[in-house]
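Hi all, long-time lurker, first post. I run a small reading group and we've been trying to get comfortable going from sequence to structure in the token notation. Rather than ask abstract questions, I figured I'd post a concrete chain and ask someone more experienced to write out its structure so we can walk through it together at our next meeting. Sequence below, copied exactly:
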Amino acid sequence: MPPPPNQVLPPPQGSVSQSIATTLSSALQHFINSDNPSHGQKIHTHILKSGFRPNVNISIKLLILHLKCGSLAYARKVFDELPAQTLSAYNYLIGGYLKRAKTLTLRMGRSSMRGLFDMTLEKNVICSTSMISGYMNWGSVEDAEDIFRKTVEKDVVVFNAMIEGYSKLVEYARISLEVYIDMQRLNFLPNLSTFASVIGACSVLASFEVGQQFQSHLMKAGLFLDIKMGCALIDMYSKCGRVEDARRVFDHMPEKNVFSWTSMIDGYGKNGYPDKALELFRMMQRKHQIEPNFVTFLSALSACRHAGLVDKGMEIFESMDRDYSLKPRMEHYACMVDLLGRAGSLCQAWEFAMEMPEKPNSDVWAALLSSSTLHGDVDMANMMNSGELVGSRMVYFWRQTGIKKQRAKIRGM
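-- Answer (accepted) --
Happy to help. Here is the structure in token form:
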């Protein structure tokens, strides 16, 4: 436990030691992560009274703390007094304005953010980069484009913000490739972030021919061997249905991590090669001692679902907590319910959903509805469609439709 907020700092004694700065940072982080961050605001009060001059690290944590408390005015004051206004500081503050826009009105949020931009436009491009990213994440493409046009001195980071923003939106993905060409015409050299975005755009567009050209650019730039680029290429080729090209990239990666293995497993599973997906899943654990993460398990379960491998899927699902202390999430439960339902085990799928530690969400019910429709269980499908997914009514439904008898027959086989 950190010391109480009023005991973090001793009375000011001129220079403050590094140990005190570390204590401050730790205490602020504790309150940032807590359910009651407002209690940590007393630390800022004591800092002001003590005359202590916080460094950039502590100032940014104070900024985050005030934002978590919803005190945007205090956060802005900390930002204005920063000894150096960093990119992360801009990002946190703009995120605060965006959150305010959601709770108030978009116009007010835009007004506050635009005011920040207008004040700092001539100083540096950090603010414009953060603004572009913020607007793109918000879906306000025209506002992002306006900021980009008004940015006087552009650099590769500003271009990357535009390319990344466009690449994530289906209707704008092709424009990201045009911006990539424009930045090269202006003699800006693309970096890893640039390539990651344009390859992502190729994935969205399912355009492997263009992706192959970017792979050539990567090789010329000496960036082809980077793990992040390898994962991006695997994902792109897989989404384009070129799973053999994806495997070729995977095999030529000099270094692989859990993300590259997961990308290849997911690619095989989604392209109709569940056996190869599960073979890789076994290999990464047994031969290479790489621990799967939540996404890896979901990819493996999806492969089992497509192949109808109920027993294997159940084995993988149970191994999450047993072998890796990973508590299955809602998406893992939904995948298992779908796997059981597709295999015709509607009773088992229902029981699996009812035994979940959390209340099933719409994905779980959708899986049950899809399975009941697939196997012609009209009564169950009608019940799912009617929205009567409340405990007592569903139990009554299962009893009335004879599921208990069906379960007894299954167990007696």
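A couple of things your group might point at:
The chain has 24 helices and no strands.
The first helix runs from residue 18 to 33.
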